[in-house]
């Protein structure tokens, strides 16, 4: 949840959750040079589709990682490697929808990084045919082939340094 919560804090404004509403204040975007998002569920998690949206706080439709239960005629298969039918107009959780539609950038440079073997996000990072860890309007991205969720954070310090200091992906 770190990436999505971090993005919302930088963007500022009203935060609406299942437990209430609060004002995060004005955007901090102008004060952020580089925002790095590692293995974030920006478009939800496929493990949260279906009934899990009703029983899991993490997966709820208001402020959770609910990815939507369908995309076009594709239903309850958001992690499928190929969509059987054209997919557009997905409805995600309210929090993720508002976050991704908000035009305020998280910083001057935005980098996204993830692994295809992430053991939390699963499905090679795919949600309805798109990488859920890719922050909209990213400057660049880095995709690892074999790291777990935690290894994507713990074993990529050199790449993170290059993103933050040099604004590059090597």
From TrEMBL:
Biological processes annotated in GO: lipid catabolic process
One Pfam family here: Lipase_2
InterPro entries recorded: AB_hydrolase_fold, Lipase_EstA/Esterase_EstB
Single GO MF annotation: lipase activity
Gene3D superfamilies cross-referenced by the UniProt entry: alpha/beta hydrolase
Protein name: Uncharacterized protein
Native organism: Panagrolaimus davidi
């Amino acid at each position: 949840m770190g990436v999505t919560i971090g993005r919302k804090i930088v963007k500022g404004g009203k935060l609406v959750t299942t437990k209430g509403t609060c004002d995060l204040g004005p955007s901090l975007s102008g004060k952020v040079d580089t925002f790095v998002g590692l293995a974030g569920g920006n478009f939800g998690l496929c493990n949260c589709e279906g009934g899990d949206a009703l029983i899991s706080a993490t997966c709820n439709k208001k402020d959770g990682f609910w990815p939507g239960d369908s995309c076009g005629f594709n239903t309850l298969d958001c992690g499928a490697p190929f969509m059987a039918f054209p997919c557009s107009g997905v409805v995600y959780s309210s929090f993720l929808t508002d976050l991704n539609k908000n035009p305020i950038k998280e910083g001057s440079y935005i980098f996204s990084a993830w692994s295809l073997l992430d053991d939390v996000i699963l499905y090679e990072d795919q949600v309805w045919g798109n990488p859920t860890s890719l922050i909209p309007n990213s400057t660049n991205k880095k995709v690892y082939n074999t790291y777990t969720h935690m290894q994507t954070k713990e074993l990529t310090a050199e790449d993170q340094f290059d993103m933050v200091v040099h604004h590059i992906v090597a």
